[in-house]
Design a protein that fits this description.
By secondary structure, the protein is an alpha/beta fold. 21% of the residues lie in helices and 21% in strands. Among the domains are: 267 residues, Alkaline Phosphatase, subunit A (3-Layer(aba) Sandwich); 88 residues, Immunoglobulin-like.
Length: 533
């Protein structure tokens, strides 16, 4: 049998396709360009949300944020400026929803994440073999074990455009191409130069990882993906305009035509199902993403969908749909100003320039789009003739057909996936945390099976069996996953329980614990096993 393929994901934070291979005249991305030349580059890949945690929750689960309650940014810490919010909490996703890496681990893959998670819930111990700054495919115990390895260079995050995070510019600010809704000032140009500097640095890091893959003799049997979670700039990040959701996507690997360029619509929610498909695994039916490569690949999408809700301190509710050309945006709260109070956004040097010139009355009509009031209830853009989404066609009779079609597509999607944004966040959290207390996963129990014991009773603390012997693990919490280990170390490597454990003759100590996403992890249970030959 051919070896199972490996997977290497290198995700850049907060990055539009500012790459040379995408035709950007400023970028210096030689490693990304070579990766694209050896594989396929998608021109129409879009995120499910224009901000980190909701977008990443969709990637790891294959589910839309509004469908599983991960749509508010951010949930797992308190904000001192708004202590009234129902944070911190860990989103309690439906019991059948898993991190898709569990399906890979159950199929024998060694799964590592280095190191960002940001899923709107604490990552369960069952999601990764390794999750941290030292996680690497080279740490797998068996060099022949297939792997799925994720690396998350973080320097391209929007905060990389703050002056203190990039003291040395490698690009000339005068060379920057500014979107028309930004004022042309030295501070804006310097911020853009910092953005390109960090993309170049991340390109070098990607090159190092590709070199390691070559050194290990693994390049020919490894699918390498590069993608981003969303865009980086004001009127982009946190908004469903293309500058917020249009992201790069490149994949090189077995069977992928070198140098191919695809204009198929792809959503970042499709990444997990695509990996499962390329690994030869079933894609769980509940997943709302769809594979675009491999045995389970679906026909190309007609639409991609986007949501915006509470981001940091401020609530909002925006829904959007896009086909290959037109974008429809529905502002569910048109009475809100465009610029809500988000202190983190206001630290951005470009946003500071926009505020300064707004106060001075020196912004032109296009630059004032970020301050228009009231908001239109609907927005429609032709992204081919108007790539910066400046001219709202929602009231244009010539585009009434496109408006009606996209409006219906959005309504159909909301009916299909459900919209937890219709609930107040406080009500949603009360449903998950009765009396304000996070639920706790039930501890797993041990079920021994051998000739004398048919699996009808639990074992506690110690058990003597006759070989051949099995141990089933059971947890009473619906949707919980179980981790187990025979290691005695204080920080063991936890394995994912997928089927009854065959216990060899001898003396063993089996440890296990359970976790459901959004619940607190269970207490650990131990069983001393004595198996006679």
């Amino acid at each position: 049998m051919p070896a199972k393929p490996n997977f290497l994901w290198i995700s850049f934070e907060d990055t539009n396709p500012f790459y040379g291979c995408y035709g950007d005249p400023v970028a210096r991305t030689p490693n990304l360009d070579r990766l694209a030349a050896g594989g396929c580059r998608w021109t129409h890949c879009f995120s499910t949300a224009p901000v980190c945690a909701p977008a990443r929750s969709a990637v790891i689960t294959g589910m839309y944020p509004i469908s599983i309650g991960t749509h508010h940014m951010r949930t797992t810490h308190m904000n001192p400026g708004t202590p009234e919010l129902p944070t911190p909490y860990s989103a309690v996703v439906p019991h059948y929803v898993k991190c898709f890496t569990e399906y890979l681990r159950a199929a024998g893959y060694f799964c590592t994440n280095n190191a960002k998670t940001d899923y709107q819930f604490d990552p369960p111990v069952t999601a990764w073999d390794e999750c941290g700054t030292h996680a690497h495919w080279r740490n797998r115990p068996d060099p022949d074990q297939p792997f799925f390895a994720v690396f998350n260079p973080t320097r391209t995050h929007e905060s990389g455009m703050w002056p203190e995070h990039c003291p040395e510019l490698r690009f000339d600010p005068a060379e920057m191409k500014l979107p028309p809704y930004f004022p042309d000032t030295p501070k804006v140009r310097q911020a853009m130069a910092r953005m390109y500097t960090h993309i170049e640095e991340s390109d070098a890091e990607l090159g190092q990882l590709l070199a390691q893959l070559e050194e290990d003799g693994l390049a020919d049997n490894t699918y390498v993906f590069n993608w981003s979670d969303h865009g980086p700039l004001p009127r982009g990040k946190r908004w469903p305009y293309d500058s917020g959701i249009h992201v790069p996507l490149i994949c090189r690997g077995p069977g992928i035509e070198p140098g191919k360029v695809s204009s198929d619509l792809v959503s970042t929610i499709d990444l997990g199902p695509t990996v499962l498909s390329l690994a030869g695994l079933e894609v769980p039916y509940h997943m709302q993403g769809q594979a675009f490569l491999g045995l389970r690949a679906k026909p190309p999408r007609d639409y991609v969908y986007v949501s915006r809700d509470r981001y940091d301190e401020s609530y909002d509710m925006v829904r959007a749909v896009r086909d290959r050309r037109f974008k429809y945006i529905r502002n569910c709260r048109p009475e809100l100003p465009y610029q809500l109070w988000i202190p983190y956004l206001n630290r951005h040097p470009i946003m500071q320039e926009v505020w300064r010139l707004y106060l001075a009355g020196e912004l032109n009509e296009t630059q004032l789009l970020m301050f228009q009031y009231p908001r239109p209830t609907e927005e429609l853009y032709d992204t081919e003739s108007d790539p910066y989404e400046i001219h709202n066609l929602a009231g244009d009779a010539a585009h009434e057909g496109d408006l009606v079609r996209l409006r219906a597509a959005l309504d159909n999607w909301l009916r299909e996936v459900g919209d937890m944004g219709e609930l107040s966040e406080s009500e949603m959290v009360r449903r998950w945390y009765p009396d304000g207390v996070q639920p706790v996963t039930a501890p797993p129990t041990f079920i021994p099976i051998c000739r004398e014991i048919p699996g009808t009773q639990q074992a506690w603390e110690q058990c003597t069996l006759t070989a051949p012997a099995l141990i089933q693990l059971h947890c009473a919490t619906q949707g919980a996953s179980i981790a187990y280990t025979f290691d005695s170390e204080s920080t063991p490597r936890w394995l994912l329980y997928a089927e009854p454990l065959r216990i060899a003759p001898g003396d063993h100590v089996l440890r296990c614990k359970a976790i459901r996403i959004g619940y607190r992890e269970s207490e650990e249970r131990r069983l001393e096993l004595h198996v006679r030959a």
